[in-house]
Amino acid sequence: MKVLLSSDQIQARILEMGKEIAADFQGHEPHLVGVLKGACPFMTDLAQAIDLPLTLDYIAVSSYGKATKSSGEVKLVKDLDQGLDGRDLIVVEDIVDTGLTLNYLINLLKARGPRSVKVAALLSKPARRLVSVHVDYVGFTIEDEFVVGYGLDYNERYRNLKDIVVYGG
Ligand code: IMP
Ligand code: MG
After folding, report:
1. For residue 30, what pLDDT is reported?
2. How do beta strands 3-5 and 164-166 pair?
3. Cα–chain-centroid distance for residue 21?
4. In this predicted structure, what is the pLDDT of residue 75?
5. For 39-83, what is each residue's pLDDT tens digit?
6. How many CA atoms does the CB half-sphere of 130 hold within 13 Å?
7. pTM for the complete prediction?
8. Which of 64, 100, 107 to probe ligand 1 with, by most ligand atoms within 8 A of CB?
9. Furthest-apart CA pair in the chain: how many Å?
10. Nearest protein CA to atom 11 of ligand 1, as residue
């Protein structure tokens, strides 16, 4: 499969994103909310790249299942462990595709009283957006291609690849 983003490229970009976030959140203690399972490698590397005190939590929502197109349906599968009252949230996503997942999550999390909500996504596919969602920190903007690796799956496989590759490409 064709390598779209090498491990070195991904890691270099995450270091930049971490510096930008640390500068923006100076004097605050951000609370990172990672979206299982795809965002796990990114969440780990991004958190280490942010030179600030911070806390982490995870949430899981239903995803594509076996298909490569979004059903448009989003369901909460695993909730957070901690409350969000007064916290400065950073929602950490692997990829923003149609935007439906993020739109659902932002509304859900905003209702729990955080002080602020920002979004960090490693990848964005703007060509496929169905709802407009603001992404504050984008790693890479990519074309309308289905990609796997570095947390991203097809039918639960390929999450362990170090690079991001085009599925079937
Ligand atoms: P959205 O709700 O359409 O924005 O989709 C978000 C979720 O769909 C992501 O968190 C991924 O789990 C999955 N997804 C979207 N595009 C891809 C892709 O190219 N490869 C793997 N998963 C994807
Ligand atoms: Mg996902």
Report:
1. 98
2. antiparallel
3. 14
4. 87
5. 999 999 999 999 999 999 999 998 655 454 555 668 899 999 999
6. 13
7. 0.94
8. 64
9. 45
10. 95
